Structures are given as C-alpha cells and as structure tokens.
Amino acid sequence: MQASDESSLRALENLMTEFFHSCTTNERKREIEELLNNFAQQTGAWRHCLFFLSNTRNEYVMMYSLTVFENLVNKMWIGLASQDKMEIRSCLPKLLLAQHKSVPYFIRNKLCKVIVDIGRQDWPMFYHDFFTSTLQLIQTPALAPLGLMMLKTTSEELACPREDLSVARKDELRKLLLEQVPTVLGLLTGILETYWDKHSVIASTPPPSPTSREGVELLGSLFQGSQYSKLLCQPMAALDNESHQLCCLVLECLAHLFSWIPLSTSITPTLLASIFHFTRFGCDLRTKAKTGPLISSPSNGHEVNKADRARLGVLAMTCVNELVSKNCVPMDFEEYLMRMFQQTFFLLQRLTQENNAHTVKSRLQELDESYLEKFTDFLRLFVSVHLRRIESSPQFPIVEFLGLLFKYTFNQPTHEGYFACLDIWSVFLDFLTTKIKSRLADRESVLNRYKDALVLLLREVLNRIQFRYNQAQLEELDDETLDDDQQTEWQRYLRQSLEVVAKVMELLPSHAFSTLFPVLQENLEVYLGLRQFIGTTGSSRRLNITAENDCRRLHCSLRDLSSLLQAVGRLAEHFIGEVFAARFTDALAVVERLVEVTCYGSQTGLYDLETAVPSVLKPDLTDVHAQAVAALQAYSHWLAQFYSEVHSQNQSQFINLITSAVNASSPLLTTKVPEKLLLSASHLMVSITATVRPVFLVTLPAVQNIFNRITTENQSHRLPQEAHILVCRSLSNMLLLPWPNLPESEQQWQTRSNSHGTLVAALTREYRVLRGTVNIGARQPGLDNVKAVIHHTLPVLRDIVDSISSESTKSRQICYQSLQESVQVTLHLFPVFIQQPDVTDEMLAFFLTLFQALRVQMGVAFTGQIIQTFLSMFTREQLAASILHEGSAGCRVVQKFLKILQVVVQEPGQAFKPFLPSILSLCMEQVYPVVAERSSPDVKAEMFELLYQILHQNWRYFFKTSVLTSVQRGGVDDTMENEAQFTAAMQAFGQSFLQTDIHIFKQNLSYLESLNSKHKLYHRKLFRTSMLFHFINVLLQVLLHKSHDLLQEEITLAIYNMASVDFDTFYSAFMPEFLNGCQGVDTNQRAVLARNFKLEQDLPSFTQSVQRLVNDLRYYRLCNSSLPTGTIKL
C-alpha cells in the first residue's frame, strides 16, 4: 500500500500542477476534474487522502484531500463503517496538532472545519471529547490560537447549522452549546484579563500631564463615583504581536458567540469590562513612535502598529454592538446594560475631548475609519433600541450624552459619517415626538429638559447647509451625478439636513421659526438689493458686479438663499390644520415675503441678465427664483385654509396675495425662460388652481393672458411638453373644479362649460382634422407629422382627464363633453396605427385614463363599441408579435389593453357583463398560450390580475349560489356554470407556481388567498375534490426545492388555509399519499416524518410541522444519496 500511495501522491501532485498551469486547455481540465471526482467517489478514498495530507507540501493536493473529507463527512457519513469513523476522528485532530504551524492558514482553517463538521454529526454520543479537547487547546498557551480557531468554527457551524441536519439534531446542538456557554465565556474573559494585566503592568506609566486627568474629571460629572472612571483611566496596555493576535481571536470568537447567545448573567461585568479595555485601542491615539515605526517593549516581539491596534478596537466594538443590537433584555441584565452604556460614553468623551494637541475634528480624522463606523453604529443602536429604556433613569445623564453626540456629529471627518449621525438625531427626534404625544400632561417639562440641545442642533444644522459658515465642505459635494434615488450628493445633504430642521420645528415651532426667518431675511436683502446693479446697454441687460471677490460672495449668498428657501418651504406643513390660527402671523409674514421675492424676480428678470461669471451666477439667479416659486407653492394648502377662513369677510389681503403670485408666474410661462424656472412656475399655477381654487382667478388679466398664449400658440412658440401639459392642466382645473365655499347654484357651470369647450377645441385643433385625412390601408407619406400631432395632443388630454378623476360628476360631465370629438377621432385612428406600437401605446394610455375616470359619462353603448374595436384588432397573431419583444412598446400596448379590460370587468351592474365570455377567451385562449412558456413578466402580471378581477368581481358567473346558501345546505350543492373556463383559470394559476418568477408567484398566491377569504374558494366542491391536494402538493414541493425561499411564510400560510378546509382528510389521506410519493427516502424515514408531523390545527404548530417536514425530508435525501462503487486509480 505504501508504495502505491507514494506513486498516487506523485501522480496527484503532477495532475494538480498541470490543472492550474496556464497552458492547460479547458478540455484537459475537464478530463482531470472528472478523474479527480471519480477518485473521490470510491470507497476508502479517504485513506489515500490521509496519506497525502501527511506526506505532501503541495497546497493544491492538501486542499483536494480536505475537500474529499468534507464531502465524506457532510454527505456520506451515515453510511460509513463505525470503525472507519473512529479512525478518522482519531487521525484528523492528530494531523491538525502536528501540522497547524507548518501549513498555510487556509489549509489549517479547512482542517478545523472538517473536524467541527464531524463534531456536528457525532458529538457527544460518539465523539465525546470533541468540545473538551477544544477547551484544553485554549488553555494550553502554545496552542491557544488553534483552540480559539476551533471554537470560532464550532460557533459558526453548530449554533446556526445549515439544513443538512434534522430539526431534532439542530435543537440538541443548540442545547449542548448553551450548556457550555458559561465555561467558554469564563475562559475567554480569563485570557483577555491576563493579557491586559500582564502588559499594563509592564507598560511604563508616563508622567502626569495637564491632560491626563481629563477623563476622570469629565466622568465625575457624568457618573458620580463610577468605579469605571478609575478602571478606564489606567494606562493602555502595550501588546506585542503574539498577544495582539491572540486577543483579536478572542474578540472574534466573542463577536460570533454574542450573535446567538441570549443576554444573560453569563455575560459578566468582568467580561464586559475586559471588552471595554480593548475598545480603547480604537480611540487612544499613540501614533508618534519613539524609535522608528515600532516601539520596543520589554516583552517578547515588537509592539503592534497603529492599524493593528485599531483592529483590536474595531473587534471590541463589534462585540459591544452585537450585545446592544438585541432588543429582548431580561430584567437581570438591565444593570449590565447600564454599565455598558456608561463605559461607551467614557469612550465618547475620549473621542470628543479637546486639548492643546488636537481639535475634536483632527482627533476623529486620525482614527481608523472602520472604528469610527462601528462607534456610530453603536450610537445608532443605543438611540433606536435602548433609549426608551434608559432615558428616564436617574443614573443616566441624557442631556450630557446629547452634548457629546452633538460634538461627535459636527466634527465628523467625512460626509457619510455626518449623514449617519444625522440619522441618529432623526431617530432621537422621532422618539421625542412620540413621547410628547403620549404624555400631554407633562409635555412642557419634557420639552424643557431637551430644549437647549434642540436649539443648538437646529442652529448648527442650519449653519452646515450655508456656504457662509461651511464653504470648504459644501464645495466638495457633487451636484452633477445622480444616485439610485435620483438625487445628487448635494441634494441628499440638503434633504437630510432639512428633515432634521423640520422635526425640530414640530417640537419647537416658534423657536425654529424665529431662528430661520431672520437668516432668510438677511440673505434676501442681498438678493433684493441687486436691482441697483442692473445696467442696460442697447438691448442687453447686465449685472454690474465684476470684482472676483464680490462675485464669489454673491455666489455663496445666492446658494444659501436657495437652501433657506427650501427650508422655509419644507416647514409649510407646520402652519396648517389645528395650528393655523395660532401661527397665522408667522405664516402670513413668510407668504408675503415669498410673494414679494417672486414678483421681484419676475419683474427684474434676473434669470435673463448677462453676468461677469455666467457659468456660475446665471444658474444661481435662476435657482433662487425657481426655489422661491417652489417655496410659495408649498404654502398652497395654507392659502387654501386662509381662503376658507376669510371667504365671507374682507378678502383684500388674500386677493392681493393670489393676484401677485399669478402676476409673478405668468411672465415665466414662455419658451425664453430657463426650463427649471418654467417648471416651477407651471407647478405653482397647478397648485393655485387645484388646491386653492379662488373664484376670481379666471377674471385676472394675467390668467387671460396665459389662456390666449396657450390657445393661439403655434409650433415655434410651443412650450416644452412637460410645462405645456402642466399649464393646460391649470387652465382646465380653473374651469372644471368646483369652487370651495360656494353652493352649487353659484358655480356658473354653464359659462365654465362653454369656456372649457373652447379651451379643448383650441388644444385639439390640429388633432381633430386628422379624422378626415388619415385612412386605413393607405401608406401616406405625411404619417410622421400625424404621429407628432398624436404624441403632442393625447398626453395633454390624458392629463386633463386624470386631474378630475376623483372630482364630482358635474366636473366629469363637462370634461367628457369637451373631449367627445377627440375620443371619436382617436377610435377612428386606432386601426390605422395598429402596427405602430409607439402610437398605439399612446392611444391606449389615453383610453385607459378615460375608462378609469369617465366610463359612466361615455355611456354603455360607446364603451361597448370601443371594447369591440379592441377585441377585434388584437388577434392572436397581433398579440404574439407584440409580446415576443419583451420590454418593447408592443409589450406595453398589450399591458395597457389588459389594464383597460381590468377596469371593464370591475364595473358593477349588468352593463358590461355581455363582454365577459369574449374577455375570458381572449385571456385564456389568446394571451395565456403566448406567455405561459415565456418569462414575459410584465404582461403576465397584468393577465393574472385580469383573471383575478374576472373571478372576484364576477363570481356569480361561475357559482350561482351565494356563500350563505351553500353553508346552509352543508356546502354540498355548488351549482356551477362555465366550469371549463373556471378550471382553465385555476390551472393557469397552478402552472405559475411551477415557474421561477418570484413576483408572479407572490402576486398569484395572494390572489388565491384573497378569493378564498372573499368567496371561500378552497371550500367549493370542484376545488376541494379535484384541485386542493394538487395545490398543496405544488406548494410543498416549492418549499422543498427552496426556489422561493423569500416567500416561506406566505406559502406555509396558504398550505394551512388549504389544509384547514378539512384537516381530517389532510392528515389521513393527503399526508400518507404525499410521503409515499416522496422519492429518495426509505419506509422507516417516511414513518419518522409522518410521526413528527403533529396532528395540530392551530397555525403556529402547523407552521412548525411544515418547517420540520421540509427540513428533515431534505436531510434524509442528502443522507441517502448513494455512492458509486468501484476503484479508480490515478
């Protein structure tokens, strides 16, 4: 054997070298792979691998041999002879002891994992010394690193094992490990204490300096006489390399143990104190080396460098965060938690300590980034999970803590760090708001406690968004590139800051306002003062500010004004509702100021000036103007409330505000204005017409002016499409939306109806002409122009319809009256463009909006005509051609068509019932066959929703009897009609559960559950007798294949709802049949599976049984996957 093993080893080494050689072809690699796989599969291959491991230095061979062992232990262990198992259990640990220092670390780790895998199977019954030998290793100084590696691997593999174990074994392992926890934690505490003490004593204590008492004094005020103040002010330990490695391993072990150990008294104060000693390595700066980069230490080796010290701090903080992230805190652990927070805030003081050598910012800048991230994580967890527990404790100085958090936040060295801290403040402000709402009685005392902190926070956040105070940092922010949320880094910075400002405003409204408004006023003075610098030469107007310094200062002031205007807009919601009267004066001051600024901007036309630095100042001026208009728009709800409060009194103040706002917007609605400003003005007009709805709006000259401009414009002066749509919407709103505070008799509907007809006629002038000029079949040369008219007109009409969809019947009647001719034209043009999906898409989008908003107004006859046209145009070939191009316009056309049908089948009453058979047959015979075997997710989703709506809204089409009747008759007499179509629909749902698309799966499962809760689908005779078990079977198979793991809960609930129709039959008939049909398990295992599935009828027990069945069935199949025999020589 020895000689043949020798030759096999040489052959294997050669094969491995050849396999990884750059010149080896893929073909040859496949041959070698097959040979190696066959060798590994043969019985007794492990003996050869044991020889290879003991006698080779080739890393590839070692890795291959260990993979053979891993495969053997995890997949074939049950079938292995007990003598062989004993031999492996004895040989591998010896091999590890002999070679752990000489082999590369990844080989050592892999060998550890194989041994732990054996323990996972055999400890304690057949491998009783598995855990004790690990503990012995840890206690032997020379072997402690190896023992810790084994312990960490054991924690990873046994505490949360994968599914290749039965549920009973998983529970047993968890129990066994929990029994060992106190011993393990005791050992690890001992190591940390020993190394700290050993190296602290040796470390020479520096002479006292003026700053060395900083910690003690500060702590004195924070935690009177806390024992940790002395403990944590000891000098730091100076670890050599070996001790550092060992302490890192201990902390890694603890971090993993803490991830699954419940909080309990096993986690002792001594252990916590030891961990906290090491958290200091992240925040004590000892960067200046005395002799070169390494400091000699009296103990063996060299002291570790700064990066390694930081790593210790990071690992220690990871341990702390694992503990703090647990929400479930037993009573007897609360005191420990308090100690932990005290210790961490000692560190927070260290981090935010100013002294002669460092500002806080420079201190934080010198720290390791990961350490700072971990520390911020800790603060976030503390505030979000534990603040409610600790905030009212007399031992915890919450106000001082907020002071430290404030310093920490506003000295962050990176933007990301600052964002993360702002998030923490947001969570704190939410906590405070909730607390105050729940305790109205002592609201004032709670607020007073925090007022100073909130005032400081507000002022500092406002300063941080202003170039005046923070120019260097703000200029670093990118304002070009959009992130996943479609905002630039600068916009995100501003948005997050303004969220904090708004939350403080909610708590301290008057204070926040009196802080913000004067700052806004100050910047406005600069902006409003620009008028004196405008000079005119010939036809051009110019801003006469040219000195570089002045331009720079103006740029900063304008950027700040823009941000402050956004801040003022963000606060609008805090002036309306119940507080309207109380805060009226403040709000009026804001709105008057905003109206003044927008009027000034429009009158002076600042966006149109020539400037000394056009690339900077021109966008600045445009942006300020746009933000002022947008901020005014934010107050439209306030204006609406103002209108309803004063409508019967003197309205002059209100009328002046609205008139000025419209006068300021009107000149901006032209093509000469930059698009950003044009859109801002368009949105303001929409808000005034939709939210405020003043009765006098139509009579204003500025509005008449807009009306004339839009209705007479030609192609060359047409606004960009988005702005054009918004302006048309605002004009339509003025004529269609009911005026508030007025009775029906004073709404002047007749006059408004005539005006609306005129407006729409003007907007569709070119479109309505098309009816007489475009015919089916003729390939006319001017079709591109026709398409342009369609693409321009239909979105405008669609938007007008959409904006009145939730309004009164009168508004909708007038709207349809105005649109009637255009609708007829569209239906006439539809067949002409059926082969051009981009046009059909536009038309169907229009029809979909019509169906959703105006189907009653269109009447049954005309609606029927439209549906009939569509059904006849969408032949199977037409549908197939469209659907095959996924993501194309054709696909979108089919989606919209199906959406229209969804609206039709949901209509109550009998009007559209005659269409049901043809819609069903289109769905099942034309669309479904095309999408069934393809992914087509978008069309599929719409098609299944249509099917669901047909079933849900038209249940009586299939089942004549009501639920009540069938219950009274004992559920037997289910009179069915259209059974074939119902069965086909159910089969389509069933088929979708066999496919990989998880979104369709989730959607369809929820549809079935909904049909069951609303119509008792699972109880219906046809479903119960011929479909129920098929569905349960499919869902169980999905759980077994783990293909839709994200939906485990939903699938299990659906199985429960189906089984609960008749639990007796489920347990007596379905389960035995299901288990008998299961491949890959023997009779004995089937019996165990059946026995473990408890005959319970409540959901939690049933869920547990299903999870156990799925887990154990997979486990048995894994065990039983048999091995090919025969010997293969290398």
From TrEMBL:
It is found in: Cytoplasm; Nucleus. GO terms for biological process: protein export from nucleus. Keywords: Cytoplasm, Nucleus, Protein transport, Transport. Transmembrane segments: none annotated. Pfam families: IBN_N (PF03810), Xpo1 (PF08389). InterPro entries: ARM-like (IPR011989), ARM-type_fold (IPR016024), Exportin-1/Importin-b-like (IPR013598), Importin-beta_N (IPR001494), XPO6 (IPR040016). The keyword Oxidoreductase does not apply. Residues 32-98 form the Importin N-terminal domain. SMART domains: IBN_N. PANTHER family: EXPORTIN-6. This is Exportin 6. The lineage of its organism: Eukaryota, Metazoa, Chordata, Craniata, Vertebrata.
